[in-house]
Amino acid sequence: MGETTAAKRPPEPDFETMTTEELIAYRTAENDWRASSEAWAFIGEPDPAAAIEWQSVELPGRDLPVRVYRPASTDEGEAAGAGLPLVIHVHGGGFVGTAAQCDWTSSHLAARLPALVVSVEHRLVAPDSPLTNAADDGWDVLQHVLRHASEWGVDPARTAVFGESFGALISALTAIRARDAGLRLRAQVLVNPAVDVSETMLDYPSITEYAYSPSPAMPLLRFLRRLAIPPEADARALSPLYADDLSGLAPALVVVPTQDAVADHGRRYAEELRAAGTSVRLTEYPGARHAFLTLPGVEPQAADAQAEIREFLREALAE
User: Fold this and answer.
1) In sequence order, which residues have a C-beta less than 8 Å from that of residue 316 and are 6 or more positions away?
2) CATH no. for 20-316
3) How many whole angstroms separate alpha carbon 152 and alpha carbon 69?
4) Sheet strands (E) in the chain
5) Rounded to whole angstroms, how far apart are CA atoms 319 and 317?
6) CB neighbours (10 Å) of residue 178?
7) What is the pLDDT of residues 85-112, one digit of tens each?
8) Domain locations in the chain as residue ranges
9) Model pTM above 0.85
10) pLDDT per residue as tens digits for the range 18-47
11) Helix or strand holding residue 308 (H, E)
């Protein structure tokens, strides 16, 4: 998968009436635009001090693309084989989205922590691809890189997960799976997380307040839930907010933009983590909108949020 240099953004479709064919066509065109230099005015330019490439990871029954960010230079300890910290990142967007839309933040983290950032190009939800596929992709990539830590040049003892929106849902699920498997993560970073895909997904004051402004969130959330959760699925089992046990998880940074329909998802999850005894920091960015971290060209608080995430991870991943 490579970036295009000239792409035109498609018009946003009617999510209430979209067919499968229209979904595939729309997300292909939209992802081409997000991966192009034409989008940089909105999503920011990659840090030139990071090397970026697509790689293919061989997972059970499938090969999955990942976008890999490495610092252009490392210190003597890392060069001698100590290994870089590892950040497994998952982009936002359930039915549309690409790791390349997060180049600005992922490349800055790689260059300035420094760390190896592996961003998962998970299977997007569709009528034939439910949320469980994307959740497995996040978990399986984490396990794969840790099993082959020396080949990737990482220190497996210094690992964090980081996700945005739908990607934060996957990252939160991954953190729970890691704890259950006896794998110690140093940190989890959840930015504008959507952590409830159950029947109560829309039952929050922030969703009522921001259902159609500053963007039409309600039809997107309804469409996402319809694709992500088959009728027979246990939606609560895929909703971190309803996990039976939130104790013993990696320390969390929960970042909430206040003008966001799912702002209360993040607030409630932070409350539940804290009640379970898991260390959590909740930071709200007043006036910021959903996906603000991927829009530094139009969201002035994106740089502050990126700096906070970087410092949180620097402390968590220190030797």
Assistant:
1) 160, 186, 187, 251
2) 3.40.50.1820
3) 11
4) 50-59, 62-71, 84-90, 116-120, 154-164, 187-191, 252-259, 280-289
5) 6
6) 22
7) 999 999 999 999 999 999 999 999 999 9
8) 20-316
9) yes
10) 999 999 999 999 999 999 999 999 999 999
11) helix 302-316
